[in-house]
Design a protein that fits this description.
This protein has 159 residues and is an alpha/beta fold. Helices cover 42% and strands 18% of the residues. The protein has one domain (3-124): HUPs (Rossmann fold, 3-Layer(aba) Sandwich). The N and C termini lie far apart (46 Å). It binds coenzyme A. The site of coenzyme A has 25 residues, from strand 1, helix 1, helix 4 and helix 5.
Length: 159
């Protein structure tokens, strides 16, 4: 069984992430969307809130699992017997950081590879921090996140 793991902070999930989730789920048997910890970031939403926003956005799908992990990504990969990490690439600016993570993870476990999927052009300018910024000032975010979570994000972040 081909299991892909799509890790990220998802703070919060955006249409850009959902585009990757939809496309990646079509080329594997099971996609695990993993809310994980980037120690360099201070999240606005708790892990449970981020999981809930993902669940509301993705809905019930047979081959998609949504979960969280707070350790090293390669340890999670081993735990679920997955060999492939999937990541979205938005622009050249993502490349250096992503390459470093992919090489580091492969170095930690040479059975693990990272696949990159180009983000769709209409999402290439999106980021979770931009959504948080817009929401903080009460701007409309409906074009950038699923309708069912837009109000929840605004409610939590609007000053
Ligand atoms: N569309 C829109 N935005 C996207 C996107 C897409 N397809 N893909 C990524 N982004 C955005 C994210 O929203 C995020 O935006 P922000 O910086 O404004 O919050 C940014 O791009 C970076 O996202 P991502 O690549 O998912 O990185 P991350 O920092 O959210 O997550 C982890 C990185 C959690 C996956 C990584 O730190 C990790 O694996 N941690 C576990 C511990 C570990 O194993 N460490 C060693 C790894 S080398």
């Amino acid at each position: 069984m081909r299991i892909f793991v799509y890790p990220g902070s998802f703070d919060p999930v955006t249409n850009g992430h959902l585009d990757i989730i939809n496309r990646a789920s079509r080329i594997c048997d099971k996609l695990i969307v993993l809310v994980s910890v980037n120690t360099a970031k201070t999240p606005a939403f708790t892990v449970d809130e981020r999981l809930e926003l993902l669940r509301l956005s993705v809905g019930k799908r047979d081959n998609i699992e949504i979960t969280s992990f707070s350790g090293l990504l390669v340890d999670f990969m081993r735990k679920v017997n997955a060999k492939t990490i999937i990541k979205g690439l938005r622009a050249v600016s993502d490349f250096e950081y992503e390459m470093q993570m992919a090489l580091l993870n492969h170095n930690l476990d040479n059975e693990i590879d990272t696949l990159f999927m180009m983000t769709s052009i209409q999402n290439s300018f999106l980021s979770s921090s931009a959504i948080r910024d817009l929401a903080k000032y009460g701007a409309k975010i409906n074009d950038f996140v699923p309708a069912q979570i837009a109000d929840i994000i605004i409610k939590k972040l609007k000053k």
